[in-house]
């Protein structure tokens, strides 16, 4: 049932024509519509559960980097990305634009910039301030500087704001093309992104606490106990002095005591199991930190096998590729800004990172296939493609190269054998070929003439195929193939 305003798509559901078109381009599920929304501040708190529990900012995560295992894993994770090759892929971009981008990136301290961008995976987000300047008539970035993430926050519209002396709570909006903002797994609900160090906080805290108790346990039970014995009615002052002598004896192994007193050395027995509890706790916390930052704990544990270490390395490579993509997206956004300010619209060059060994392996397989197919490469190509130096390849003598080239060169008359085959193919009767095809497709034409819909006809093709007479067409094509093969054998 229809009306001028809409249509009933079911007995109980009515869809209105054009009545809600204006709402289609508007967000309805926003924070302003939530029942628990308070508009007294523009500040959107960081929803990180660890920071909310502690009531602190990202400085807590910065302090974690002083812990040896966390700091070492961070260096290892960043080092995996910094070890990659990087450069500008011109693609179909104009040469003038590509040359400008390449010159800009050649002047920037890329290792530091990439390392600061990678902090986004540690803290969730990492603002990068772009310092612009005019070089050679172009407006280009002269430096990129990572700024402390705790200086910034997001407002209710998920816009980045800088906390300033004039606006320490709400912060101030930032100008366009001034701050790059790499983020990890950011969403509408959490524009701050996900901080990997949030997964390291509690394991590190428990490890520090367990280490403290382990040290106390070792001090208490790792050394033998000295038990002093003195007469029952000894005055307290003499007892205290005797105790101080025993304490000194623990350090110096030397003591002077009255002849009516004695010292007994008692070893701690049966405490090895208790010490193992602390060790297992520390090893568990170590594994949790490794998994949080590296995605595995196989390559950093002493009892891992080579097979498990290789499997763990693959997981680490996946995380490395995700970090690499974060760097590429951030710097490609910068390339878009440079291009817009200097050239306007057009195809953009791309910043890319890659592992040279992987590229060399793929390139070598491709070159081998081409070589097996008869292609020949010059020494200049191998030097350019594989980064070889002069003298690494044996140069082919010019005379031999010339002879080889002449051997495969075309004759003045072209390829007479191929021309003969082409002429024979052109003399094939198109009428005969059409008749053979018509005979084969007769069952299909009959179904079309009967008015079978296309969708049903498509489903019947498998049933119609056994009834198609393709003998004539197959015989004619077989003759052509036989003649071509025979001609090639005779004239090779």
Write the layout of secondary structure elements.
Blueprint: E1 6-10, E2 13-16, H1 21-24, E3 43-44, H2 49-54, H3 59-64, H4 68-82, E4 85-89, H5 95-107, H6 110-117, H7 119-123, E5 128-135, E6 138-146, E7 152-155, E8 160-162, E9 172-173, E10 179-180, H8 201-221, E11 225-229, H9 236-252, E12 262-266, H10 272-294, H11 306-342, E13 350-354, H12 356-372, H13 379-386, H14 398-408, H15 416-426, H16 430-440, H17 442-449, H18 454-464, H19 471-491
Antiparallel strand pairs: 1-2, 3-7, 4-13, 5-6, 5-10, 7-8, 8-9, 11-12
Write a concise keyword list for the protein shown above:
492 residues, alpha+beta, 4-stranded antiparallel sheet, 13 strands, elongated
């Amino acid at each position: 049932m229809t009306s001028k305003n809409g249509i009933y798509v079911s007995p109980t559901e009515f869809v209105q024509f054009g009545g809600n078109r204006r709402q289609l381009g508007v967000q309805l599920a926003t924070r302003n519509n939530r029942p628990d929304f308070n508009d007294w501040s523009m500040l959107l708190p960081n929803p990180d559960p660890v920071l909310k529990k502690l009531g602190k900012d990202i400085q807590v995560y910065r302090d974690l980097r002083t812990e040896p295992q966390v700091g070492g894993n961070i260096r290892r994770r960043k080092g995996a990305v910094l070890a990659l090759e990087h450069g500008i892929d011109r693609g179909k971009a104009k040469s003038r634009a590509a040359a400008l981008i390449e010159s800009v990136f050649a002047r920037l301290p890329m290792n530091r910039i990439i390392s600061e961008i990678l902090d986004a995976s540690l803290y969730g987000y990492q603002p990068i301030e772009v310092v612009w300047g005019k070089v050679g008539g172009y407006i280009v970035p002269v430096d990129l500087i990572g700024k402390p993430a705790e200086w910034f926050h997001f407002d209710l519209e998920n816009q980045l704001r800088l906390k300033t002396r004039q606006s320490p709570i709400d912060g101030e909006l930032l100008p366009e093309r001034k701050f790059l903002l790499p983020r990890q797994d950011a969403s509408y609900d959490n524009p701050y992104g996900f901080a990997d160090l949030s997964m390291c906080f509690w394991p590190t805290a428990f490890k520090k606490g367990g280490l403290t108790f382990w040290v106390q346990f070792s001090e208490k039970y790792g050394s033998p106990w000295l038990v002093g014995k003195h007469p029952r009615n000894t005055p307290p002052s003499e007892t205290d002095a005797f105790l101080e002598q025993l304490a000194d004896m623990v350090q110096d192994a030397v003591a002077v005591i009255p002849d009516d007193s004695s010292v007994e050395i008692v070893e701690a027995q049966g405490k090895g199991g208790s010490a193992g509890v602390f060790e297992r706790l520390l090893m568990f916390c170590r594994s949790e930190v490794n998994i949080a930052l590296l995605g595995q704990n196989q390559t950093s544990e002493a009892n891992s096998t080579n097979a498990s270490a290789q499997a763990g390395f693959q997981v680490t490579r996946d995380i490395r590729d995700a970090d690499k993509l974060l760097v590429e997206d951030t710097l490609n956004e910068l390339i878009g800004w440079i291009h817009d300010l200097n050239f306007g619209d057009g195809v953009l060059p791309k910043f890319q990172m890659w592992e040279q060994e992987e590229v060399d392996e793929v390139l070598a397989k491709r070159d081998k296939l081409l070589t097996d197919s008869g292609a020949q490469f010059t020494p200049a190509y191998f030097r350019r493609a594989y980064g070889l130096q002069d003298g690494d390849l044996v140069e082919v003598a010019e005379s031999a190269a010339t002879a080889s080239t002449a051997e495969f060169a075309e004759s003045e008359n072209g390829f007479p054998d191929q021309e003969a085959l082409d002429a024979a193919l052109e003399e094939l009767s198109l009428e005969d070929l059409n008749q053979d095809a018509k005979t084969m497709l007769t069952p299909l034409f009959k179904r079309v003439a009967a008015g079978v819909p296309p969708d049903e006809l498509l489903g019947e093709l498998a049933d119609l195929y056994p009834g198609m007479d393709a003998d004539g067409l197959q015989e004619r094509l077989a003759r052509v193939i036989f003649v071509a093969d025979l001609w090639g054998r005779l004239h090779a």
